[in-house]
């Protein structure tokens, strides 16, 4: 069920429309080709870096650990910036939460995921259109202390008011409640370092042309960093303060675990061309994964993505 749309007085219709155009239809994201996370080998790499087991996903790892300390399923949880990915559906489907509330600003994304919840008959899943920059604290269903855990999965890097979001989540969480993040934490507005740009361009130059051709036929060579204006033109919320997500957390939460999983090379290198590496008969993808791990291990690059387990202070 999707709750009635709340008034969003501080959020312009133009902003909502721009975000909705990008995230309201998942097909837009893969129109030019697949992304790195669409590859099973990359998923296994992420699992291994976060959980230590290539076959154990981060959420399953989190709930396995949590279940050793408290009863599972949790009574009530929230997913901020849920989009149409269906994380809140999985939390209920897997028996990790009795009730899960998905919050997002995109009406099309919410309609799509609400339809999926109804199709599965997941009565414990509800949705609410709201701006994560100003959560509806105090309204029905969003009373202080009404959630056992809050999940931010690929959504929090779209938040401009991080201080307000963190303060709001801390208010909504019960004492000792969990804030689970699986996020892009790299440079704001995708202002990659010169080293990243040079490394990606160098690798692209060495790959055979069929491997660097996008789904619409463009040959991807000579990687270029987008300007902030170009990023904003596509999505005004994109990576707006992504580099501050981790530094600001301790103001409201205790970070219990930080599990970086790279992405500084593979995320950008494989964008729009990941489909060309599905079979990987020559083991090129394996070597690219090893190359990123080499750069990480030697401190040449930092993690642009991480799973973070944080807990409400007090």
TrEMBL record:
Protein name: Methyltransferase type 11 domain-containing protein
Methyltransferase type domain boundaries: 80-181
GO MF annotations in UniProt: S-adenosylmethionine-dependent methyltransferase activity
Gene3D superfamilies, alphabetized: Vaccinia Virus protein VP39
Lineage: Bacteria, Pseudomonadati, Pseudomonadota, Alphaproteobacteria, Rhodospirillales
Domain of life, source organism: Bacteria
Pfam families membership: Methyltransf_11 (PF08241)
PANTHER family named in the record: METHYLTRANSFERASE (PTHR43591)
């Amino acid at each position: 069920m999707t709750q009635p749309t709340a008034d969003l007085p501080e959020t312009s219709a133009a902003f909502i429309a721009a975000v909705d155009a990008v995230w309201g239809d998942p097909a837009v994201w893969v129109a030019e080709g697949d992304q790195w996370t669409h590859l099973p080998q990359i998923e296994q790499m992420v699992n291994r870096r976060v959980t230590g087991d290539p076959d154990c996903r981060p959420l399953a790892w989190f709930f396995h650990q949590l279940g050793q300390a408290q009863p599972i399923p949790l009574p009530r949880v929230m997913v901020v910036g849920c989009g149409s990915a269906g994380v809140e559906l999985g939390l209920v489907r897997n028996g990790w939460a009795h009730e899960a509330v998905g919050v997002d600003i995109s009406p099309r994304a919410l309609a799509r995921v609400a339809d999926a919840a109804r199709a599965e008959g997941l009565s414990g899943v509800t949705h609410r259109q709201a701006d994560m920059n100003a959560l509806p604290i105090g309204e029905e269903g969003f009373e202080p202390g009404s959630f056992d855990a809050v999940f931010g999965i690929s959504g929090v890097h779209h938040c401009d008011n991080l201080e307000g979001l963190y303060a709001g989540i801390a208010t909504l969480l019960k004492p000792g409640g969990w804030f689970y993040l699986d996020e892009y934490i790299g440079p704001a507005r995708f202002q990659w370092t010169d080293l990243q740009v040079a490394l990606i361009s160098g690798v692209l130059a060495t790959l055979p042309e069929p491997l660097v051709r996008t789904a619409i036929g463009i040959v991807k060579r000579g990687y270029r960093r987008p300007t902030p204006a170009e990023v904003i033109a596509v999505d005004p919320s994109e990576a707006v303060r992504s580099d501050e997500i981790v530094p600001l957390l301790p103001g409201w939460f205790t970070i219990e675990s930080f599990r970086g999983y790279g992405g500084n090379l593979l995320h950008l290198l494989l964008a729009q061309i990941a489909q060309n590496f599905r079979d990987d008969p020559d083991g090129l993808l394996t070597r690219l994964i090893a190359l990123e791990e080499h750069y990480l291990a030697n401190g040449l690059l930092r993690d642009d993505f991480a799973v973070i387990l944080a807990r409400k202070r007090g």
